[in-house]
Amino acid sequence: MPTFTAPDGTELAYHLRGEGEPLVVLPGGPMRASVYLAGLGGLDVHRRLVLLDLRGTGDSAVPADSATYRCDHMVDDVEALRVHMGLEHMDLLAHSAAGSLAILYAARYPGRVRRLALITPNPSALGMRTTVEDRLAAARLRAHEPWFEKGFPALEAWLTGRAGFDPALAPFFYGRWDAAAQAHDAATEEQTNEEAEGRYFSDGAFDPDATRAALAGLTAPVLVHAGELDGGPRPGLARRTADAFPNGELAVQPGAAHYPFLDDPEWFVGRVIAFLDR
Q1: Which residues, other chains included, contact 87 with Cβ-Cβ below 8 Å and sequence gap of 6+?
Q2: pLDDT tens per residue across span 169-197
Q3: Whole-angstrom Cα distance, residue 20 to residue 216?
């Protein structure tokens, strides 16, 4: 397991999968160990995935200062990984909550990004957030599913703060609630640093106006990859996210939710590789 040292002295780990040109991968959660991404549906057949365990997750060390779990503080961890890998510039892929981390990285180091793929991203760094109404509207698309009758009230209660997370609402995050999805979901809690999760989006993490201004100088192509059934982001929010970049484009994967690399690996890999290798 290779490691490198962050600017504040924290030892960080990353995992290599596959062969070929490197693709640096940032996991979501927020603050979930990278193991849940596995080979990203077979993307590792085409690229050598460099899967970073964010500080305090997976095989990376817990930092001395827990305030550094805030998203903006980890931008220089990503830059330290680039330097460690000896890459002049890099292709970067981020999933879910890590979308904001990748956006901040691109704003601070625009010349170091060759291509950026944002997979079902959280665009809070741009001042945009998924709303309760967004999530409920997406959930209603699943009304024909056998688990909907039990899951929808649980989702509504969680989103409105009337109850905690209920396992009954987990199927909304997957395009297919099959055995693979259930196994993937079951591992979530043990892979997530809950303290870090609570600090990731804490006050002061984002300055959307400054970030948008900095991104005006980003020449790298950016793919925002959304799931047709995902509540966060819905395709409309993903479109607005893509429009925030000078060279942004949108892909909406049919029948997919928040984990498109599980829902239809062939479709996902084909679209992402077409973007990366263009």
Answers
A1: 22, 24
A2: 999 999 999 999 999 999 998 999 999 99
A3: 31
H or E segment to which residue 226 belongs: strand 222-227
Residue 179 has a CB neighbour count (10 Å cut-off) of 8
Maximum C-alpha span of the chain = 52
pTM for the full model?
Answer: 0.98
The C-alpha atoms of residue 104 and residue 241 are separated, in whole angstroms, by 13
Smallest Cα–Cα separation from 251: which of 117, 153, 60? 117
Relative to beta strand 48-52, strand 113-119 is: unpaired
Which structure tokens are listed for 29?
């959660």
Our separate counts of H helices and E strands in the chain read 11, 8
Residue-range domain boundaries for the chain: 3-127+192-276
Q: Which amino acid is at 104?
A: L
Cα 202 to Cα 205: distance, rounded to the nearest angstrom: 6
Whole-angstrom Cα distance, residue 155 to residue 8? 39
Report the C-alpha dihedral over residues 62, 123, 183, 12, rounded to 10 degrees: -20
Classify domain 3-127+192-276 at the CATH class level. Answer: alpha beta
The answer to whether 203 touches 169, Cβ cutoff 8 Å, is no
